């Protein structure tokens, strides 16, 4: 039994219902056989239906070349239904490489000469798709005539066809230039129809309400793209509003508020949002909008946004607009200045870091509070990446801390202390700059913390009075101590700040002591407002009144920080309290001798441990870690970290430096205080990180051979 031919819809359903590719091929082969038979029979009534099915098969990737001649027959047919399918088949099945496409030249010429616009449109689309150079030469005159047709439908297709012809045959441009010049004189669409404009201006309020609903209702799964609600409809409404509001004050006034809402509420992080914002700006600029909307502010915002997106792909091109971007930092509009700040930070590089940082620091002094954190952090990051010298880097951070210290990142203090510590030639310069800044203002907590740390580390350089890079500054010990005391007593000081100040005082106790017992840097006025009164036996070099004052400072720090946990209490003994607090050489019985231990050696770097157990506190073990470098290159960024069993408690004090000089120079020492109340066997786990001989080194090892005298 002969299976009847399927309709196009039935064929599509059967192909889609095929469960395997073999089933699909079987269905298509059977239907292609019916289509061939129909073409052979020459059935004119159903030829366009058979060709439509063949075109669908061709779209699926199966061969359909046997339908090329049927396309020519349908194009020559007087019926529009045949021409429509025939021209579609010609565009899909024919191309310039096949001679058959030349056979439709006469049919296209006849159809272009007819006055039926739909048929002319089909012929023009086919010509602009498969037209070869020979066809373009033959049909150029017909297309030229259609360029000046009154109807826009045929005229637009004729323009596109003319473009295709010029690309194929550049010599034809002389034919199309005169009509193109006349096309430019045509008024924009809508402008030539005042009656239509008058009619549609009545519905401006309805258009405004529709657009407001799209903007304010938010996300809709049916019509949203990238989080923007129906951007295509928004763009079309904005274009219509632009035409209706041009040179019409009433319509422009109706849409003013809406345009402001669209401009401020549209998400520009996606392309869909940028398209809506772009049309909004065009509408604002082309209508009689309010001064706040039509001002250059919105145009500048869009320009800055575009430059910010371009800066990653073409940095040098955006650099040319740097002066204009910097000027936008001073704009009163907050959104504009924020976008200008983001772009300014993105434009900073090694060649302009000095100039750009100066502009950004000037902006930081007067910028709105909500921009200070971003501006300060951006300057610090730029300085860290592109600093030309260490001194410039230090000066830049100090200026930021002085101007907006409370808005910087949490790691700013640690970064600056590390930077200063690694620049030995700038120690005197840094401590003088920080001391002067601290004397002027103690409200900026990060600045106070860095200054206290620097004074504690390099206070002796501050008192020497010799630094060629700064103005002469004569500072007395009493002034330094009074300033640190002021920090401790200030209600603005955070607990961490008081900790920095107190640590600085303890460091100065060893670095600023005089030549005799009558002179001590910690002697303070008797009217100091401290509460506690301790009376331990004085150290061998420090008089009694000062010890009481220093312990009062500890009490003051503890009372202001409720969250801080004190170290485990040691057994008190006469004359031992201050020595334990400061690790000072107070008069006490000689401790038992414990042999030293070398625990690490690599490429000239040696790590030795020396041990002391104070007799008055048997549970306490003091370990001095000494790093010595006998190689020919310095060991830099040296960090030693330690861990002990859970039954013990460890206090790891700051090292004497982070650079171990070459050739057996001054070693780096660090003190470990281990409290072992249960006298459990002691083990140490050490981690060393440093830079040596151009390499970054990290070593983790365990010390299990500690002498028994250290814990028994």
Automatic annotation (TrEMBL):
<dbReference type="InterPro" id="IPR008153">
    <property type="entry name" value="GAE_dom"/>
</dbReference>
<dbReference type="InterPro" id="IPR002553">
    <property type="entry name" value="Clathrin/coatomer_adapt-like_N"/>
</dbReference>
<keyword id="KW-0813">Transport</keyword>
<dbReference type="InterPro" id="IPR017107">
    <property type="entry name" value="AP1_complex_gsu"/>
</dbReference>
<feature type="domain" description="GAE">
    <location>
        <begin position="592"/>
        <end position="707"/>
    </location>
</feature>
<comment type="similarity">
    <text>Belongs to the adaptor complexes large subunit family.</text>
</comment>
<keyword id="KW-0653">Protein transport</keyword>
<dbReference type="InterPro" id="IPR016024">
    <property type="entry name" value="ARM-type_fold"/>
</dbReference>
<keyword id="KW-0333">Golgi apparatus</keyword>
<keyword id="KW-0968">Cytoplasmic vesicle</keyword>
<dbReference type="GO" id="GO:0006886">
    <property type="term" value="P:intracellular protein transport"/>
</dbReference>
<dbReference type="GO" id="GO:0030121">
    <property type="term" value="C:AP-1 adaptor complex"/>
</dbReference>
<dbReference type="InterPro" id="IPR008152">
    <property type="entry name" value="Clathrin_a/b/g-adaptin_app_Ig"/>
</dbReference>
<dbReference type="InterPro" id="IPR011989">
    <property type="entry name" value="ARM-like"/>
</dbReference>
<keyword id="KW-0472">Membrane</keyword>
<dbReference type="InterPro" id="IPR013041">
    <property type="entry name" value="Clathrin_app_Ig-like_sf"/>
</dbReference>
<dbReference type="Pfam" id="PF01602">
    <property type="entry name" value="Adaptin_N"/>
</dbReference>
<protein>
    <recommendedName>
        <fullName>AP-1 complex subunit gamma</fullName>
    </recommendedName>
</protein>
<dbReference type="Pfam" id="PF02883">
    <property type="entry name" value="Alpha_adaptinC2"/>
</dbReference>
<dbReference type="InterPro" id="IPR050840">
    <property type="entry name" value="Adaptor_Complx_Large_Subunit"/>
</dbReference>
<dbReference type="GO" id="GO:0016192">
    <property type="term" value="P:vesicle-mediated transport"/>
</dbReference>
């Amino acid at each position: 039994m002969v299976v009847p031919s399927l309709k196009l819809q039935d064929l599509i359903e059967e192909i889609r219902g095929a469960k395997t590719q073999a089933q699909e091929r079987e269905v298509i082969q059977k239907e292609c056989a019916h289509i061939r038979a129909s073409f052979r029979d020459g059935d004119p009534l159903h030829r366009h239906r058979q060709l439509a099915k063949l075109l669908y098969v061709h779209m699926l990737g199966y061969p359909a070349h046997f339908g090329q001649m049927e396309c020519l027959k349908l194009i020559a047919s007087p019926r529009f239904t045949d021409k429509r399918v025939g021209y579609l088949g010609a565009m899909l099945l024919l191309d310039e490489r096949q001679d058959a496409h030349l056979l439709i030249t006469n049919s296209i010429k006849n159809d272009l000469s007819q006055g039926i616009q739909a048929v002319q449109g089909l012929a023009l689309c086919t010509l602009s798709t498969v037209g070869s150079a020979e066809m373009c030469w033959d049909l150029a005159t017909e297309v030229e005539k259609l360029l000046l047709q009154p109807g826009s439908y045929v005229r637009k297709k004729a323009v596109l066809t003319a473009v295709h012809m010029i690309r194929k045959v550049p010599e034809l441009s002389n034919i199309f230039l005169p009509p193109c010049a006349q096309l430019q004189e045509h008024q924009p669409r809508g402008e030539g129809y005042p009656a239509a404009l008058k009619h549609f201006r009545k519905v401006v309020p309805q258009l405004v309400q529709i657009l407001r609903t799209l903007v304010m209702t938010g996300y809709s799964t049916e019509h949203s793209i990238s989080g923007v609600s129906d951007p295509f409809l928004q763009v079309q409404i904005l274009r219509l509003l632009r035409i209706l509001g041009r040179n019409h004050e009433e319509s422009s006034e109706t849409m003013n508020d809406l345009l402001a809402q669209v401009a401020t509420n549209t998400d520009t992080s996606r392309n869909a949002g940028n398209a809506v914002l772009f049309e909004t700006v065009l509408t604002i600029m082309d209508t009689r909008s309010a001064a706040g909307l039509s001002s250059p502010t919105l145009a500048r915002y869009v320009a800055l946004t575009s430059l910010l997106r371009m800066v990653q792909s073409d940095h040098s091109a955006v650099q040319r607009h740097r002066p204009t971007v910097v000027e936008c930092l001073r704009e009163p509009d907050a959104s504009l200045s924020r976008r200008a700040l983001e772009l300014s930070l993105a434009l900073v590089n090694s060649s302009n870091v000095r100039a750009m940082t100066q502009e950004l620091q000037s902006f930081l002094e007067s910028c709105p509070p909500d921009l200070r954190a971003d501006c300060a952090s951006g300057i610090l990051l730029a300085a860290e990446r592109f600093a030309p010298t260490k001194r410039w880097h230090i000066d830049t951070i100090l200026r930021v801390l002085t101007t907006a210290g409370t808005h910087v990142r949490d790691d700013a203090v640690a970064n600056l202390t590390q930077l200063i510590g690694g620049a030995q030639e700038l120690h005197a310069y840094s401590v003088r700059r920080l001391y002067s800044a601290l004397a002027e203002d103690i409200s900026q907590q990060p600045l106070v913390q860095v200054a206290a740390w620097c004074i504690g580390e390099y206070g002796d350089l501050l008192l020497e009075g010799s630094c060629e890079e700064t103005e002469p500054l004569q500072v007395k010990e009493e002034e330094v101590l009074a300033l640190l005391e002021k920090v401790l007593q200030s209600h603005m000081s955070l607990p961490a700040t008081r900790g920095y100040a107190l640590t600085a005082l303890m460091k100065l106790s060893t670095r600023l002591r005089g030549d005799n017992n009558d002179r001590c840097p910690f002697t303070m006025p008797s009217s100091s407002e401290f509460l506690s009164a301790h009376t331990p036996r004085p150290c061998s070099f420090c008089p009694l009144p000062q010890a009481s004052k220093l312990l009062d400072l500890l009490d003051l720090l503890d009372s202001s920080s409720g969250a801080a946990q004190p170290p485990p209490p040691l057994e008190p003994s006469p004359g031992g309290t201050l020595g334990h607090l400061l690790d000072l050489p107070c008069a006490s019985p000689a401790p038992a001798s414990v042999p030293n231990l070398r625990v690490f050696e690599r490429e000239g770097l040696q790590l030795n441990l020396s041990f002391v157990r104070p007799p008055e506190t048997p549970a306490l073990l003091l370990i001095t870690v000494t790093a010595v470098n006998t190689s020919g290159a310095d060991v830099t960024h040296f960090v030693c970290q330690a861990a002990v069993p859970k039954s013990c408690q460890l206090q790891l004090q700051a090292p004497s430096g982070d650079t171990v000089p070459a050739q057996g120079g001054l070693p780096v020492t660090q003190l470990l205080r281990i409290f072992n109340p249960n006298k459990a066997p002691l083990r140490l786990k050490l981690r060393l990180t440093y830079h040596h001989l151009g390499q970054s080194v990290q070593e983790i090892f365990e010390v299990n051979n500690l002498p028994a005298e250290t814990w028994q």
